Amino acid sequence: MKTVLVVDDAAFMRLSIKNMLQGTDYQVVAEAENGKEAIEKYLEHKPDIVTMDITMPVMTGIEAVRELVKKDPNAKVIMLSAMGQEQMVKDAILSGARSFIVKPFKQEILLKTFSQFI
Amino acid sequence: MGKELLEDMEEFEEDTQKDKYLTFKVDEESYGIGIGIVTEIIGIQPITQVPELPEYIRGIINLRGKIIPVMDVRMRFKRPIREYSDRTCVIVIEVRDMSVGLIVDSVSDVLNIPEEEVVPPPEIQRNSNKYVNAIGKVGKSIVLLLDCNRLLKDEDYLMMKELENKEE
Amino acid sequence: MSEMFSNTSMLEMYIFETTQLIGQLENMMLEVEKKNSYDEGCVNEIFRLMHTIKGSSSMMLFNSIAHLAHSIEDLFYFIREQKPLTIDNSTLCDLVLEGIDFIKVELEKIKNGSEPDADADYLINRIKEFLLFIKGGTPNLKEIIRPEKNKKQQYYIAPDVKQETEEVNYFFANIKFQKGCEMENIRAYTVINNLKDISEELINFPEDIIEDEKAEYIRENGFDIYIKSKSSKEDILDLINKTIFLENLTFKEIEEKEAKEIFRKPEKIILEKEIKIPKLESTDEKAEEKQSTPNHVAQNVISVSVTKLDQLMDLVGEMVIAEAMVTQNPDLKDLELENFHKSARQLRKITNELQDIVMSIRMVPLSTTFLKMHRIVRDISKKQGKEVELQLIGEETEVDKNIIEHIGDPLMHLIRNAVDHGIEDGDIRETKGKNKAGKIILEAKNAGSDVLIIIKDDGKGLNRDKLIEKGLEKNLINKPIEELTDKEVYNLIFHPGFSTKENVTEFSGRGVGMDVVVKNLEAIGGSIHVDSIEDKGTTITLKIPLTLAIIDGMNVRVGEARYTIPLMNVRESFRPVKEQLISDPDGNEMIMLRGNCYPIYRLHEFYDVKTNIKNPMEGILVMVDQTEKSSCILVDELLGQQPVVVKALPNFIKNTKNIKGIGGCTLLGDGSISLILDVNGIEYGE
Which string of DSSP letters, residue by residue, matches C106-122? Predict the structure, then answer.
């Protein structure tokens, strides 16, 4: 069972992802609403992989990825972005995110992306 | 008596519930209802009357905090009422989201009546036949299988009410 | 357990969250409109809210909502980035509020299980036009300059290059993505990035693959990677095949000799251990500072499904009854049980506390409902060209969730009335010596086990003569005019069908409103009261119970049956004497009390209950307040007052007949059932 940390300020999105992973080999062990919380939860749970929304209050996804990778260079963070956020996705990847998924997305894409890393 | 019966019922597996009927007596006749809708069987309890309801709906009882309406099956079949004794049972059924207790003279066994032994009812329109939708053969005797939906819904009564409303 | 993750809960979550966000958004827009300015935090917040709504709506395939949200998001993105100096604030607010309304309507459709099928194209076009307009009108429009990045990563070399003692393989791969997957440059970059872990060296073509300009090329031709790795062909192939949106892969092993040629480019090697992070927009930092806008839901609050709450309430209610059945069990009567009673008291204390807390969980502040009123005041006053200020007091006052649902509509109607009919036009107000802007105060405060909601306006008030005139017209007056108290005159407005002609506008309807307000209130056991001074204003007071689930009841007995009369309806109870009892020519029984005459209803007759008490002088008369009058109900005896948990009559009975005068039932301490009376149903005829 691989563990997942879901980071998104929208409860709906977090639930969507949890839903998609229900019954798969991936288990959501923690959730966070902003970048700051994401780092705390990451250090607490040491998940195998992280999904991270780009636009969030308090600390954006990009900042969070940078901090996270600083603390754990092996952190596997997948950015979730909306259409038209190319620049931010780029920044995120350059900051250490491993891959990205564009919303809206289906379960298949999520699982396939995960399988690339864990 | 009811409790033992329930325990027996619990031993049956789900998919065999289809042909199982709980049988009970009103006067000399045996009636049966599908085991699937029976939630429990209890002894007769103090009934709180609720006004303005048809006579056969005797009122409501307190079942461990849940309020359940009870219907006297004899009266439903338009038979003269009998006094309740300690043999009188209440069969609690659940139909379409409603819980109702059926007051019967006594409860008999749970019988297995396979499909082959079930035939449609005769054409005679006696009072109780309205609610019988099939006849089950068990050895030499017969069990009248009840349609609980019709038992609970009184089309006559509703129709009457509508007529009353129109006249007002 | 799996129900938690069914589609229904997704939908519920979507509806819940989006409704909340829309609410926040609306409040923010109204503030902005009032202040006529935008601060950065505000703009950012609006952008973020729209962005979130866009995201979840597109996940749920609610495309109109998603597209609309997108267009508003674009609009605010521009405002955030460019900070245009002048914007037509009024139009902007109108557009956004229109968008909010559209989404509200669609959400209603979704809530009701229908399709959100409305078309937002017209509105979206207007928003886009507005954006173009402000783009054109903004001086010094500059290209948004993307921050410079210090990334120079064409070649990657593993940090510790050591002497190759192990077997090394060389491969070539050309990867092509599926058409339409977008951001091919970034995707290509991630593929290469991810191969790093199992490669010694990588060379890619085109170079600078993450640059935007490369996307087109990669779309057409795919991109090439030369891989030097200790891993096996299978392992590498495996990894590459996992690429998302992979359309075509050309993969082959290459000869060492050939490879050495390709990999021998020392002067171009740049080793980057640290990637410089591009300077991000300052607005993000600002958003960090302005963490909690006033509308932000506090972090230590969770949302709970109402069904679960109801179940909890039911269980606690039953526990209270069960506790009573234990501690007041007839088996224990007359027994000396000192220790038992002590423990029973402790149990009772805990049970009561538990009940209090559970009740309080269901309590919800009136603020959400009150805040909605701002929008209504704004809309009507704008449309009618009046200036009206709405002041809220005590909106933190809490009531049971069930009640909140029934308060919204009546309140809206009353506020509408106040703005529409109460507040005069600005000029008229000035001639009267009032402020040009009208003022409406909406206040909530606790009063014992009730909550008072007061709507007070400083408008033109009610005209006694006009009301009387109308009352006479409709035959509502059955007293000499001079004897009518002001209160009675004002209360005429609550009669169905009552409405003076000027009252009918598109907002307030044809007198259909007021009596519906009254009915809604009565449905929750509330009442309404109006007072007014001509030319000074009108005050309407609503009195609503704190909660529906538990009421204070007066238990009574008739024969063997038990009934509970809600205490809020009970005025007094007494044993009558002969001199007070009278009957009229038709045989209706009445009682004279302090100069007033009240009808008597014999409960045993009303419900055909067997009892020995047929003479009122042997029983007790309970005087109850009904909607329009008071009556006396004859019962055998009073059993005492206590709070009771209201339980609905079983569905089976409700489906069979709507029993007049019975509003539910409850379980008494000894396990018996008591029927709760709905006093308004106790009357003959009709």
Answer: HHHHHHTT-------HH
Summarize pLDDT for C292-334 with one digit per residue, the tens: 333 333 446 677 777 788 788 778 877 877 777 787 777 887 7
CB contact, 8 Å: A70 with chain C? no
> Tens digits of per-residue pLDDT, C576-624?
998 888 888 888 889 998 888 999 999 998 888 888 888 888 999 999 9
Q: What's the number of CA atoms in the CB half-sphere (13 Å) around residue C223? A: 30
Give the number of beta-carbon pairs within 8 Å between B and C: 69
Q: What is the dihedral of CA C129, C132, C138, C142, to 10 degrees?
A: 160
Dihedral pair phi/psi, residue C384, rounded to 5°: -90, 0
Domains in chain C: ranges and CATH? 2-137 (1.20.120.160), 155-268 (3.30.70.1110), 306-362 (1.10.287), 364-545 (3.30.565.10), 550-681 (2.40.50.180)
Selecting from A10, A87, A96 the residue whose C-beta is nearest the C-beta of C52 gives A10
Q: How far is B114 from chain C (nearest CA, A)?
A: 31
Residue B63 touches chain C, beta carbons under 8 Å: no
Question: C221-273, pLDDT tens digit by residue?
Answer: 889 898 888 888 888 888 898 888 898 898 888 888 777 777 765 443 333 33
The string of DSSP codes covering C529-551 is EEEEETTTEEEEEEEEES-SSEE
**How many domains would you assign to chain A?**
1
CATH topology of domain B2-167: OB fold (Dihydrolipoamide Acetyltransferase, E2P) (2.40.50)
Three-state SS annotation for chain B: CHHHHHHHHHHCCHHHHHHEEEEEEECCEEEEEEHHHEEEEEECCCCECCCCCCCCEEEEEEECCEEEEEEEHHHHCCCCCCCCCCCCEEEEEEECCEEEEEEECEEEEEEECCHHHEECCCCCCCHHHHHEEEEEEECCEEEEEECHHHHHCCHHHHHHHHHHHHHC
**What are the start-end ranges of the H helices in C452-578?**
464-473, 486-490, 512-523
Q: For chain B, which residues make up each domain, given as ranges?
A: 2-167
B41 contact partners, CB below 8 Å, separation of at least 6:
B2, B3, B5, B6, B22, B89, B90, B91, B92, B107
Burial (0-12, 13-18, 19+ Cβ within 10 Å), B147: middle
* Model confidence at C502: pLDDT above 90: no
Tokens of B138: 């068990």
Pairing, β C673-677 against β C561-566: parallel
CA C83-C86-C89 angle, to 5 degrees, is 100
Q: With 70 as the cut, is the pLDDT of residue C455 above it?
A: yes
- What are the beta bridge partners of residue C527? C543
Q: Which of A94, A95, A101 to mutate to test the interface with C (most CBs of C within 10 A)?
A: A94
Q: Distance between CA atoms of C658 and C660, rounded to whole angstroms?
A: 6
CATH number reported for the structural domain that contains residue A95 in this entry:
3.40.50.2300
Partner residue facing A98 (CB), from C13, C190, C288: C190
